[in-house]
Specification:
single chain; 46% helix
């Protein structure tokens, strides 16, 4: 094998068995030339190569694990070869946390759209860019507060770090959550946020 690794593989990361099997089925039917489809679990030792394709579904409770996994491997992987199937908010959060643009597929799409998006993705054709769909008009400070919250910091800790009053930080927090439209049901990022950062007001 060359330094870049063998033929491109597709690595599927999801907490949901159904999602993994469905994607594998799509790939083996539509893209027989893909070398291997690997299901990735947190504990697996998989050596990643730049040529690998990564399809991620961070729904359910998987957001933080997904973020850690991407964070650990972001220098190896090509962001162009990462496809995230999720709600827009999860995508926005991962983009903010990792300072990278990834490919994105909305969770609610029909099967035929998912099939053609995965096909386009693996053939490295231009899928729609995320830039325009994520124009939430979040200010730099709101973004900062959001990212710090996602890292598990409480409002009090953030106010100490940024040298801002708790009230100001709370306003930034509320504004940013309002702008991205807190729909915790569709977003594992916000589910995580509510369980951790938003829930730990008692500091």
């Amino acid at each position: 094998t060359l330094l870049g690794g063998p033929m491109p593989r597709v690595i599927i990361w999801s907490e949901c068995q159904f999602t993994k099997l469905a994607i594998k089925e799509i790939i083996s039917k539509k893209l027989p030339y893909v070398n291997g489809v690997i299901f990735f679990n947190r504990d697996d030792e998989v050596n990643l190569y730049t040529k690998d394709y990564l399809i991620i579904d961070p729904s359910g409770g998987g957001f933080h694990k997904c973020y850690e996994f991407l964070n650990e491997n972001i220098n190896v992987l090509d962001p162009e070869r990462i496809l995230i199937i999720s709600s827009e908010v999860d995508m926005l959060m991962l983009g903010l946390l990792l300072k990278k643009q990834f490919k994105f597929l909305k969770k609610k799409k029909g099967l035929s759209e998912i099939v053609s998006a995965i096909q386009q993705f693996i053939q490295l054709q231009n899928m729609t860019s995320n830039k325009e769909s994520f124009d939430y008009k979040i200010t730099k400070m709101e973004e900062k507060v959001l990212v710090m919250m996602m890292s598990g910091l409480s409002v009090t800790s953030i106010s100490n770090i940024l040298k801002l009053s708790v009230k100001t930080v709370s306003v930034h927090k509320c504004n940013s959550l309002r702008k991205i439209g807190v729909d915790a049901s569709s977003s594992s990022a916000l589910f995580f946020l509510h369980k951790h950062a938003v829930g730990n007001r008692i500091t």
